[in-house]
Structure formats: C-alpha cells, structure tokens
Amino acid sequence: MAPETRGSGLNSDLVQRAGIFDVGAASHPGRVRQVNEDSYFVSPANGVFAVADGMGGHEAGALASSTVVQCLETIGTAVSAADLLARLEDRILRANMTLHEIARQRGRIVGSTVAILLTFGDHFACVWSGDSRIYRIRHNAIAQLSRDHTEVRDLVERGLLTPEEARTWPRKNVITRAIGVREEPELELEHGTLLPGDTFVICSDGLTGHVEDREILAASESSRCQDASDALIALTLERGAADNVTVIVLRYGEDTPRGAGPTASDAASLRGTMHDPASEAGDVQ
Asked: Which helix (H) or strand (E) holds 245?
C-alpha cells in the first residue's frame, strides 16, 4: 500500500506555525514477515510525525498501529503548543479505548507502540509509549530522546544487567508499555527548543535491531531526508530485516531543501498492510 498524500501548495500561516521541514518516510515488511504491522503518519502543517508498531500477531498488529494512525489523522491544526499536546492526548485516549475494547472482545492483547514528534514554531515535544524510538541529531552528534519501555532497559537501569548482557538477553524485546494494553495509556514526554539544522529520526525497533546509532547518524547526514530514510531501510534489508521496519527522517530549518519531501501543507500516512512475499524485497513503501 503506497502512502496516501493529500494537499498541495503552501499556506504562509501554516508555514509560520509548523516551521520549515524536509521530510522523508519509508516502511517495509522486512525479509521474514508477510504482514507489515507498522504504520506511520507525517503532517508537517500540523506539526505531527509518528511511527506506530502493532502487536498482537499478524492482522491484529496491523489493525492496532492503523488505529493509532487513523486517530492521529484527525488531529487538525492547533493554535498553540499546549493545544497541540491536548489534541494529541485526546487522540491517543481514543485509540487506547478502541484497542482496549477490541482486545476485550478477542480475549487477547491488541496494542501498539507509538513514537510521536510534535512541533509548534520553534518548540518540539517527544511523546512515546513502547520501544519505537525518537533520535535527534544536532551538531553532528546523535542522541536518543525517547527511553525504551522494555523489560531489559529496566533491568539495565536497576543494575541487574550490563549493556553487553542486554544485547543477548532472551526477553530483550518484551515491552512494558503500549497503547491499548491497559485502560489508561501510559505515555512519556520530553520537550525542548528546535535549532536550525536539527534532524530527527523516528523509527520502529525493526531498524534499531539491525542498525547502530552511529550508522543512523551517518545515513541522516544525507542532503535529502527521503534519501536518508531509503538508505536506512536498505541497510536493514541487507542485514536480514527480521522485523517490519519504518523510518521517518525530518530536518528543521530555513535552509531546508524545497521539493525534497512533504511540504508544510502536505500529509502522508501508511497503515499496516499485507505484503506479497513474491514482490521485490528491496522495494520500500
């Protein structure tokens, strides 16, 4: 399923509120799975960029991540940073309620991780639940702004595992938070100020399971964010891509190349979907 792109042209008021971004996004089922349980949403005009990674097995996982993205698609244009955060919280509550009810009816977990970057003017906020990640690249250095909600991360922070032991821990993929798992969603928030040239990478764990932070940094130094997104997907596929992989790369600043990705009035989304295993494994969506 190709991303659906809507809108054209630039509205000066939207540009002023949303900032100027070069944006690239790509998603692939990987080399092992036939269903892409990842979804993403990109809306520079509204200052919302999100990756969701579904859980619950096959179609249930795709349904879970798609439900999160569908709720985000209704977020609209905020009038302040506080309004944007309030709109996001409302949509996440809706998604959580929907997924929690589906899980109750099916008698099993149906949930989704989510990693969301919000921007308003020169301010940003990272909101997440689960192990999908948000990185920021600033002054040629990469930093993970989100904190993995995983069992293994908790063990490392408590001093019960070393980082080296964590890499091979048999339960390293067990997550401790996700949308739809509990009656109330558990989210974490970090915020800060945007600087021209700041680059953000939002990704599912299908990327970080195969690609190191230093390699994400190197790929994201590309002049076009779409090229960076495609390169990270390609690198993951080269290394086996045992899971679905989704990447959004965006760069903030007045010197952002125009025409390289979605403009400030474009929105694009991809929702979890079936994949034809006979198709070319190198194709990205």
From this structure: strand 245-252
